[in-house]
Amino acid sequence: MSTSSAEIPVIDISPSNPHAPAQLLSAASTHGFVFVKNDGSTGLTSQSIDHVFDLSKAFFAAPLADKENVSIASNKAGANHGWLSQGVEKLDPATQKRADVKEAFNLALPLANGTYPQAIPTTLQPHIPTLIAFQAACHALCQRLLAHVATALSIPPDWFTSRHDFSKGPSGTVFRLLYYPVLEAYEPDVDIRAGAHSDFGSLTLLFQRPGQPGLEIKTASGEWASVPVDPRPASPVSGEAEGLPMLVNIGDLLEDWTAGLLKSTVHRVVFPKEGKGEDRYSIAYFCHPLDDARLEPVPSELVRRYAETHGRKARGEGVVTAKDHLMERLRSTYSVGKTVEEVGGS
C-alpha cells in the first residue's frame, strides 16, 4: 500500500545551472528517479509531446485487426518491436497472479533512410517523420544526461555517450507507447497496470498526462510511495512558460555499471485507490547502450570507493555486453511458452 508521496527533486539541466551534474548524481544515487525541468532547453516542447500523445491515443483506439497486423508476435514486427495486447506482459512474474492490464506499442530505432525495421500501423504511417524526430530529441536528452553523470563521476564526458552513439551500431533502445485502460471492476490486490519491476537499460525518459496518476516507487524502507505526475507547486510562478517536467530513472545496467552507486529503483503502476479513475497513457524512451558495448568497470574514483565501502564489486570478471544483459532480462518477463525472439519486450 502506498503510504506517502515520493519527494523526487526537479533539476534544471540548462546551461544556466552549473550544478546540474552534481544534482543529477545526488538524485540518481539517492532516489534513482529525478524530474527534469522542461523549459525548452531539453529539446522536447510541450507541443511535440502532446502531438505524440494524440498519435498514441489514435493508435490504441484503432480496430483490433489493425493492431494485430503489427503484433509483437508477428513476423512483421521483429524481436521486441510491435504491439503487445493485454495479457502478454507480466513484469513481476514471481508474485503477479494476472498479467499487466495494459497495451503497448514498441518502436525500434529508425533506419538511416527514414523508415523503420518493422511494420508500422496505418494510423501512424503518415506521422513517421514526427516519431523519428521525437525519438532523436529523446536520445539527445539522454546523451546530455549521461554526459552530466560522467562529469559528476570525474570521468571523460564522452565515456557513456560514446557507448550510446547509435551511428556506431545497433542498440536495444526502445520507444514505447503505453495505454492502461479503465476496468469497470478489478481486485486491488490482484489486478495491476504494471507489475513491480526495474528497467533494464541505462536511462528511461517517462512522459505522463495531467490527471492520470498511478506510478509508485519502492522506497529504501520497502514502502510504496506515489510519484506525482506534476511535482511543481500548485501555483506556478507568474509568467512561467515551461511544460510538465519529464521523469527520468536509472536502469539496471547503469546501476550495475556503477557498482550500485546509481540506483535502479523498483516501481509499478497501480489502479486508483478510490473509484475507477480514467484511462492512463504514458510514453517511455528506454535508452540502452550499443549492443556490443562491454559492461566494463567505470573508471571513476567515486565508483571505486563506493564499491569498496559497500562490498559490491564493479564490473570486471565475466564482463558481458549490453545485448547479453538485455536478453537475460527479457527471458524472465514474458508469457510462458514464448521466447524472446517471438515476443521481445521491455
What does this structure look like?
This protein has 346 residues and is an alpha+beta fold. The protein has helices spanning 20-30, 46-60, 64-68, 128-152, 158-161, 252-257, 301-310, 322-330, 340-343, and strands at residues 2-5, 10-11, 33-38, 82-84, 103-107, 174-180, 194-197, 203-208, 215-218, 224-226, 243-250, 267-269, 280-287. The strands form two sheets. An eight-stranded mixed sheet has the order 2-3-11-8-13-6-5-4. A five-stranded mixed sheet has the order 1-10-9-12-7, with no helix packed on it. Strand 9 and strand 10 form a beta hairpin. It is globular and about 55 Å long.
Instruction: Supply the number of helical segments.
Output: 9
The end-to-end span amounts to 25 Å
| Coarse morphology | globular
Classify the oligomer.
Answer: single chain
If you compute it from the alpha carbons, what radius of gyration comes out, rounded to the nearest whole angstrom?
Answer: 19 Å
Average residue pLDDT: 88
Give a quick precis of the structure.
The chain is an alpha+beta fold.
Which key features would you list for this structure?
single chain, 346 residues, alpha+beta, eight-stranded mixed β-sheet, globular, disordered C terminus
Please outline the helices and strands.
Layout: E1 2-5, E2 10-11, H1 20-30, E3 33-38, H2 46-60, H3 64-68, E4 82-84, E5 103-107, H4 128-152, H5 158-161, E6 174-180, E7 194-197, E8 203-208, E9 215-218, E10 224-226, E11 243-250, H6 252-257, E12 267-269, E13 280-287, H7 301-310, H8 322-330, H9 340-343
Parallel strand pairs: 1-10, 2-3
Antiparallel strand pairs: 3-11, 4-5, 5-6, 6-13, 7-12, 8-11, 8-13, 9-10, 9-12
Helix pairs in contact: 1-4
